[in-house]
Each structure stands twice: as structure tokens, then as C-alpha cells.
Design goal:
The complex is a heterodimer of chains A (218) and B (217). Chain A is α/β, with parallel strands linked by helices. Helix content of chain A is 21%, strand content 28%. Chain A is built from six helices and twelve strands. The longest helix of chain A is centred in the middle third of the chain and has 12 residues. Chain A is globular. The two termini of chain A are 19 Å apart. The model of chain A has no long low-confidence stretch (mean pLDDT 97). With 217 residues, chain B is of the alpha/beta class. Chain B has one domain: Glutaconate Coenzyme A-transferase (3-Layer(aba) Sandwich). In chain B, the strands form three sheets. Chain B has a ten-stranded mixed beta sheet. Chain B has a three-stranded mixed beta sheet with strand order 7-6-11, with no helix packed on it. In chain B, helix 2 crosses helix 3. The longest helix of chain B has 10 residues. Chain B is globular and about 50 Å long. The relative contact order of chain B is 0.16. Classes of the chains: A alpha/beta (218), B alpha/beta (217). At the A-B interface, helix 5 and helix 6 of A face helix 2 and helix 3 of B.
């Protein structure tokens, strides 16, 4: 862990054309202050890897509306008509991935695996261009790993060494993405002394976290 | 009773004690209203909770606790929060007893199409492909027809959700069970005849001697 940053300083780290994994599910568990700082700095041509593109005015939807996104790898854009309109207009390239496959591709990328074999997507459009591998007589799709330049996480508590805990349905993709970003920036709601998050309650070990965002209001 | 309530009340009868069940957004989510708490069923939301509960009282909503549609929910005693890898491990790994999803088309092979209308609607598959591939039992809950067009067709013209044959289709007219030999008409909605169903269905139906009326939860 390198220390705390203001959101503006964290956004300075992210250049044009960067790939970003961003935690969240319909903007629940998404680092909103980090996204607001990115919108203000406005790096261009970003690749976003995330469960969904939220909705206009929330989470990843703000990056889409601001025209900062060139490519999205995601499972769902149904609640963001702007993503759909920009996809149809050819302004954003969208790769749609089944949700369970998306999280496993990220996990594979973060955990040093060469990919995953999944039955999901067999005999559908998802199979197109992919290798089918038979294991003990059963067919699986080979799905390749995903990594990114940055993982932007939202957490509930962080401690001084960057250990993270999450609340309820705000876990979603965050703990998995923590391994798959070359630089990991976490936005906690609270920063607490070491020991307050018990070792058994740590979901993301601080050794994975490069930067914490300073608490809101500081 | 409107069509959606009828479908939800019939699907609810498929749910057994102690099951882990995933209900899709929209019509399928209504099923929970007709499942008695005494059954000890856990509802999973794929965004990360086992033990989904009702919407909290006004003002008690927590932004960290939502369902897969982003709506505020509560959690029941015994609930567990999980990340997306665990959530889809449950789904794909065969640990989910039942999923109830909406549909655009089901065909004579029992294949479901429910995630894309090329050129018109491309929302993405979300969790649907994993759910249909991995759940122990897949139930499609949908209106029998849309804009006068049968949604039960000889062969899906829309992109498939999975290669797997779904287990049961519940509509506002009928309960249909896809099998090796095609689509078997199992039940009729109250007041609906077999001929009504045949007339409203583009696909061929296998009709047993007895087709009883649906019982509703």
C-alpha cells in the first residue's frame, strides 16, 4: 500500500487509452468519487471492464455520458440507453459476456490462469470464434483471462495497510477485480485503524491495494 | 386476476421446501409473493445475496442491499452475502435448485431465447446464460403471446440463451413441459380449452388424454 490519495490525484494516474476494471452492479459497490474525478479529468478512449454500464448519471454511466469510453467488456447494458445508442452509432465497441463467464475471466486473469472452461454459451452466439474443449466427454468453451491497467474498487472499510471489507450486495465484482488490475485503487467509505477489520473479515488483503482514496469530506 | 399474477401463482406451486431459487427481474420476481415463508425457501439474487427479503419499510432502505434489478430489498434470517464469483459458482455449479426467467421464445426442442432481438434490443445476457446452463431446474414464466404472435414456436428465430432444454414453461394459457418427444401440454389456465391453446400456439403440441386445469398458489 502506497498511501491515500485525493480523487483528483488518483484520476491523474489514469492516462488516455487506459483499461479499467470497475467494481459494481447497477452502480451498487461502484467507486463514485473516483468516477466523478475521472469525468472531471476526462481521459479519452478508455476500455471499461465491468458487470454493467449502470444508468445515465450513476456510476459507469457517467463515464459513458461524458464520451470517455471507447470499448466496454460487460454482461449487461440494458438499463443504459446511452451505451446502446453509442454502440449502434459505432462510438463504443461493446463485447457482451455472460455474467458468470465475465467474473471467471477476471478471476483467471488475476489468479494466473490461462483461462476457464465453462459450459455457458455453448451453441449460442457466445461460442463464435472460440475453442470448444472436451473434458471427459463433456464440451466446454475456452474463455480467456482478462486483466486491466487499473482496478477501481469500492469498499466499506479499509484499514491503514489497505485491507478491505465490503457490505452485503456491494461485494459483487470488487474482491475479484482486486487481483486483476495492475494498479489497484480502492475507495473506502471509512478508514479505520489496523485491527478494526478482523483478519477473518478481510475480503481483500491490503497487499493487493496500491492506493486508497481519502475519506469523503477530508 | 391479471395474466402476470396467474403465471406467478402457478409457478409458485413448483417451489418446494428448502429450495435455493433465483427469480428473474419483472414477472418472475412476482413469484416470491405466493411462496409461504413456512417453506424455508432461500431466494438468491445474482448480484450477491442468498436470502433476499421484501422491500424495507419506507426510509429504511440501504444502498448496499439491492436485488439484481437494482431495487431495494431486505434480507431474511440466515441470509449470506457473497461476491459474484461465488454467486455464479452456485448458479453454474448446479447448486441452485431452480431458476425462473422470462422468455421471448421457446421452441419445440425446449430451447429458450430471451436476451436479444437483433437490430432492436441488445441489452446483454446478464446472468441468463449461466442460469439456464447451470440451474437444476429451469422454468420459463412468460405471456403465451406478444402482440398477437405466439412466443411458443417451432424453432427459435431469436438467438438462443443456451443449448439446454428448459424444464417447464408457464404462460397465461398453459403449462407446457418440453421433453424428448416435443412440447407436452400439461395444464390449462382456468376457463381456457385445449383448442384455445392450440389456436394460440404456433408450435406443435403433444396433447395427452387428460389436460387438467391449473391449480394456483
Amino acid at each position: 500500500m502506497k498511501g491515500v490519495l485525493r480523487p483528483e490525484a488518483a484520476a491523474e494516474l489514469i492516462p488516455d487509452g487506459a483499461s479499467l476494471m470497475i467494481g459494481g452492479f447497477m452502480a451498487v459497490g461502484t467507486p463514485e468519487r473516483m468516477i466523478d474525478a475521472l469525468v472531471a479529468r476526462a481521459p479519452r478512449g478508455l476500455t471499461i471492464i465491468a458487470n454493467d454500464t449502470a444508468m445515465p448519471g450513476k456510476g459507469i454511466g457517467k463515464l459513458v455520458s461524458a464520451g470517455l469510453v471507447a470499448r466496454v467488456v460487460t454482461s449487461h447494458i440494458g438499463l443504459n440507453p446511452e451505451t446502446q445508442a453509442k454502440m449502434i452509432a459505432g462510438e463504443i465497441a461493446v463485447e457482451l459476456v455472460p455474467q458468470g463467464t465475465l467474473v471467471e475471466r477476471i478471476r483467471a486473469g488475476g489468479m494466473g490462469l490461462g483461462g476457464v472452461l465453462t459450459p455457458t454459451g455453448l451453441s449460442t452466439e457466445v461460442e463464435e470464434g472460440k475453442q470448444v474443449v472436451e473434458v471427459d466427454g463433456k464440451p466446454f468453451l475456452l474463455e480467456k483471462p482478462l486483466t486491466a491497467d487499473f482496478a477501481l474498487l469500492a469498499a466499506w472499510q479499509a484499514d491503514y495497510v489497505g485491507n478491505l471489507s465490503y457490505l452485503l450486495t456491494a461485494h459483487n465484482f470488487n474482491p475479484v477485480m482486486a487481483l486483476a488490475g495492475r494498479t489497484v485503487i480502492a475507495e473506502p467509505e471509512a478508514i479505520v485503524p489496523v485491527g478494526v477489520i478482523a483478519p477473518d473479515a478481510v475480503k481483500t488483503p491490503g497487499v493487493l491495494v496500491d492506493h486508497l482514496l481519502i475519506r469523503a469530506g477530508c | 386476476m391479471d395474466a402476470k399474477e396467474l403465471i406467478a401463482r402457478r409457478v409458485a406451486r413448483e417451489i418446494r421446501t428448502g429450495m435455493l431459487v433465483n427469480l428473474g427481474i419483472g414477472l418472475p420476481s412476482l413469484v416470491a409473493n405466493y411462496v409461504p415463508a413456512t417453506l424455508g425457501v432461500f431466494f438468491q439474487a445474482e448480484n450477491g445475496v442468498i436470502g433476499l427479503g421484501m422491500r424495507p419499510p419506507e426510509g429504511m432502505e440501504d444502498p448496499h442491499l439491492t436485488d439484481a434489478g437494482g431495487g431495494f430489498v431486505s434480507a431474511v434470517p440466515g441470509a449470506a452475502s457473497i461476491d459474484s464469483a461465488m454467486s455464479f459458482g452456485l448458479i453454474r455449479g448446479g447448486h441452485l435448485d431452480m431458476t425462473v426467467l422470462g422468455g421471448l421464445q421457446v421452441d419445440e426442442a425446449g430451447h429458450l431465447a430471451n436476451w436479444k432481438v437483433p437490430g432492436k434490443m441488445v441489452p446483454g445476457m446478464g446472468g441468463a446464460m449461466d442460469l439456464v446452463t447451470g440451474a437444476a431446474r429451469v422454468i420459463v414464466a412468460m405471456q403465451h403471446a406478444a402482440r398477437g404472435q405466439s412466443k411458443i414456436v417451432p424453432r427459435c428465430s431469436l438467438p438462443l440463451t443456451a443449448r439446454r432444454r428448459v424444464d417447464l414453461v408457464v404462460t397465461d394459457l398453459a403449462v407446457i413441459e418440453p421433453g424428448e418427444g416435443g412440447l407436452v401440454l400439461r395444464e390449462r389456465a382456468p376457463g381456457v380449452t385445449v383448442d384455445d391453446i392450440r389456436a394460440a400456439t404456433e408450435a406443435a403440441l403433444v396433447v395427452p388424454d387428460a389436460v387438467p386445469e391449473m391449480e394456483l398458489a
